[in-house]
Amino acid sequence: MSESTSPERAAAHGKLFPDAQAALAGIVADDQTLAVGGFGLCGIPEALIAALRDSGVKGLTVISNNAGVDGFGLGLLLATRQIRKMISSYVGENKEFERQFLAGELELEFNPQGTLAERLRAGGAGIPAFFTATGYGTVVAEGKETREFDGKHYVMETALKADVALVKAWKADRAGNLVFRRTARNFNPACAMAGRICVAEVEEVVETGALDPDAVHLPGIYVDRIVLNPTPEKRIEQRTVRTEGAK
Known about the structure:
CATH architecture of the domain at 31-129 and 196-209: 3-Layer(aba) Sandwich
CATH class of the domain at 31-129 and 196-209: Alpha Beta
Distance between the termini: 63 Å
Protein name: CoA transferase subunit A
CATH topology of the domain at 31-129 and 196-209: Glutaconate Coenzyme A-transferase
Mean pLDDT: 92
Number of strands: 12
Pfam families: CoA_trans (PF01144)
Low-confidence stretches: 1-10
Shape: globular
GO molecular function: transferase activity
Radius of gyration: 19 Å
InterPro entries: 3-oxoacid_CoA-transf_A (IPR012792), CoA_trans_fam_I (IPR004165), NagB/RpiA_transferase-like (IPR037171)
Strand content: 25-35%
Keywords: Transferase
Order of helices and strands: HEHEHEHEHEHEEEEEHEE
């Protein structure tokens, strides 16, 4: 291990690292499972995804609600063929994803959206599996254990855990306590808790103690590293506006 990625050097940073590349150094590797926050392009860790692409790691299994779009978000990793498998809910905005999947070049594990969220939450909470009525009697339930409770049928779903979680928050203190902004919270807290190591990309960093404890959405105990990205692109996936004068 080089000096730049040694535990002693990492400790010198505290939790705040100078850039996304440094924040990923020594913790990402081939064939890992990653949990990546975001919904569409809302609340995605843009700088960390780009740094992950530049790291060259491959054979990744990525747990994320969707796969970004062509040329942005997780679409960057699809273009470089670094993702081997996606565990997702919605993947309809990425033509390269479609091409790779239909060609048999990319594995896909589809989940109902609520089931995906609960599988991540269970992973973070140490719950190995749970039963849900969602998907019973459909292809979602194929090969899975089913049981009946009080006359209703349920499917057993297993928890999801990741080697590394990459998440996006609005604000952090130096202890790693996170505050998310509105709908950009989405899957980020669940991904953070499901990761063995969590790296958070944030737009603002304040001193420890500066955040109102009641305003903290995710305690710093779940966050190992922080990187500041004060000017994310925040690309809009599909802009929909009302015509002027419309009621």
